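thought: fold this chain, then report.
action: predict
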Amino acid sequence: MINFKKYTLKNGLTLLVHFDNATPIVALNVLYKVGSRNESPDKTGFAHLFEHLMFGGSVNIPSFDQPLEKAGGENNAFTNDDITNYYITLPKENLETAFWLESDRMLNLGFSKKSLEVQRQVVIEEFKQSYLNQPYGDVWLLLKPLAYKTHPYQWNTIGKEIKHIENARMSDVKAFYKKYYNPNNAILVVAGNVDAEEILILAEKWFGEIPAGKPLANKIEQEPEQNEARFLEVFRDVPADALYKVYHMAARGTREYYIADMLSDVLSNGNSSRLYRRLIKEQGVFSELDAHITGDFDPGLFVFSGKPAEGISLESAEEKLLEEIERIKTEILSEEELQKIKNKLEASHIFSETSTLNNAIHLAIAESLGNVDLVNQEKAIYADIQTIELQQIAQTLFRLENSSTLYYRSNTKNHDAQ
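observation:
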């Protein structure tokens, strides 16, 4: 159970306080409800670029890291399709340093040509190294626009293409900051051995005078139901062929989402999972094979990815994978198999809750989904899932017309292999 108290400041900032006296380290987490899905199709990669810019210093604090290091703290951030999240961990006695740093860059981020150019080059280099020059790095640059035709999930967090970052102007960057980096679009979480009322006083002191931004409609055009199978084949200089197959699934926070998540574990969580046992260990069709969900706030994707074993063609590997997918649609799981997965999920939840920072992040994400109580409801949701529901979700998701398939062929392999 993750305990918390919730407050809302006059400027719209949501404050969550989690008490945990197990560690002298306190976590301060600030989540902004902006991700790559909030970008314009012609200006992608801005949420991720801004994550970098936020560490460039504010008007009053030229170096973000220096005072934090003096206070014994550490910090980092991440951006995804739906949110941008910043976090600091430091000793309790220095907690106010974190309030000072985060509030100042929310109000007075320092914009300079030098900072923009430095971070622009960092992001461009990351794009090249991780997506263009890395083996299999461009997979999601191919899969996302194959699966999505309307929703902004069709581009990666890094952006559609490098030129969007290359062409980013200072006016674009400032407009993005003004629109999204406001207290009424943020969630502040403080977790540790702290008193909720004292934290509220600190929040009012450091964040309370920051003006609210304009209300955001955040209306995002949703992806229509897919009604035809999609296929793409590419050739790349990679050591082995790879198969990717995705299916549209329910949004995070829905019961259907949790059932699909559990289904991915049935198929691919550990050496006793169905795909590993049958297609890797017993039949030797794949050298590696995985099933997972993307975890998006809006309807996301159920993903299969794998590399066929030596001498196995992509066509043959896909055929065997589809046989296992059909099997999960027609066979009721045993209660023993289901309980094994539930036990793993419960153990994972319990282990995750031992981290104060994890608890802070989970609270922020649940609140951004519109239901902070999800942090304590999820275990019960998973425990309540029945075998028949897994079969029903499999039948709903794993339809030919709901699929997008990518054959990622190696230029160096003999593609006549059977």
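thought: worth noting. Residues 5-207 form a domain with the Cytochrome Bc1 Complex; Chain A, domain 1 fold (CATH 3.30.830.10).
final: tokens above.
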